[in-house]
Amino acid sequence: MERYKSEHRKQNRIVKFIKEYNGLVPVLGGLIVSGAAGIIAFAVGSAQSASDSFRYLTQTGDFLGAIGMLYARGSELAGKYALAGYVGGQFVTYKLKKSVSNFFAGILGR
Predict the structure, then answer these.
(1) How far apart, in whole angstroms, are the C-alpha atoms of residue 30 and residue 74?
(2) Domain residue ranges in the chain
(3) How high is the pLDDT of residue 15?
(4) How many CB atoms lie within 10 A of CB 54?
(5) Which one, 3, 50, 72, 77, has least CB within 10 Å?
(6) 3-class secondary structure for the chain?
(7) According to the model, what pLDDT value does residue 11 have?
(8) Are 34 and 86 in contact (CB under 8 A)?
(9) How far apart are CA 18 and CA 99, in angstroms?
(10) What is the mean pLDDT, run by run of 10 residues, along the chain of 110 residues?
(11) Closest CA to 36 of 80, 2, 70, 86
């Protein structure tokens, strides 16, 4: 019977962790960091391909093709870093939320 209770407590801790980790605050933190990482990666990718795009524009005069080249490299990099930004942002936000709530729980004596 005691083993069953300890297994049940362990499962309850796991379920509680999953609910807290996928709560509103960590998910919003992950979304914000993912958006920022995507925007930064898109800007870096666009800046990297800007010289090739400008060279293509001056040689052919194809403005839409040059913009397409910029967009292709930027979106490629943004796609690579958006998921990593979400996971990292969710983890950091979860840890920050836990530390702040533990800090205030210690102050309030709970």
Answers:
(1) 21
(2) 25-95
(3) 82
(4) 13
(5) 3
(6) CHHHHHHHHHHHHHHHHHHHHCCHHHHHHHHHHHHHHHHHHHHHHHHHCHHHHHHHHHHHCCHHHHHHHHHHHHHHHHHHHHHHHHHHHHHHHHHHHHHHHHHHHHHHCC
(7) 76
(8) yes
(9) 17
(10) 67 82 90 94 92 91 91 91 92 91 83
(11) 86
Distances (CA, A) of 106 to 5, 73, 92, 100, 109: 28, 49, 21, 10, 5
Cβ atoms 21, 90 nearer than 8 A: yes
For residues 30 and 90, the answer to whether their CB atoms sit within 8 Å is yes
The position carrying tokens 């990718």 is 45
Amino acid identity of residue 97, one-letter, is: K
